[in-house]
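As a warm-up, study this chain.
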Amino acid sequence: MTRWMWAVMMVALGTAGCPQEQKPVGAARAEVKSLGGSTVEFIPKDTQHPYCLLYTVSEKGIIRQLTMTRENRSIRCEAGKRIYNSSFRIPLEEGKVRAYIFFSDQRIQAGSVAQQLYDLRDKPRVSAMDFRLPGSVAVEMLEFTPQPGGEPVPGAVVGTTDLSDNLEGAEPEAEEPGLQLAPTDAGTTPPR
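Now compare it with the structure written out below.
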């Protein structure tokens, strides 16, 4: 055998004898809790950054910011308590949604995150590295499929700002939960 054949044989034996390296499964940063039908809560786990932003992206491409404040910045999120101290009702007609929770060590502006999420809407998975954000940021993606029926939940947020069209010019009349800007081609007006 030539040296080259010995080298190939040693490499083949070396790789055959090595066990497959397993990638550690990352611990979930949050959980989605279904309250029945299309109503859901998002609950952060322990050891997360103190601030968060919550967005949903539906199968139809509609992006909603669920943590809307007057300052349009991330909110304080406590471990074990539902985000925004609210339940959210996901519109059934929009189908399955991916919920993105951005945990950060400082309050960040929501508008830039919304624009970047809009730009990445077709990407099946996003991570904190896909976003240009200050400080330490972690992203958790959870999926939820709304089902018909379910009992109404008192205090559930029915809709929030729809960010699917005109991201830069979409200014809600009041930055409160429950406000929804309909897409311009839908022909509907926002609820008052």
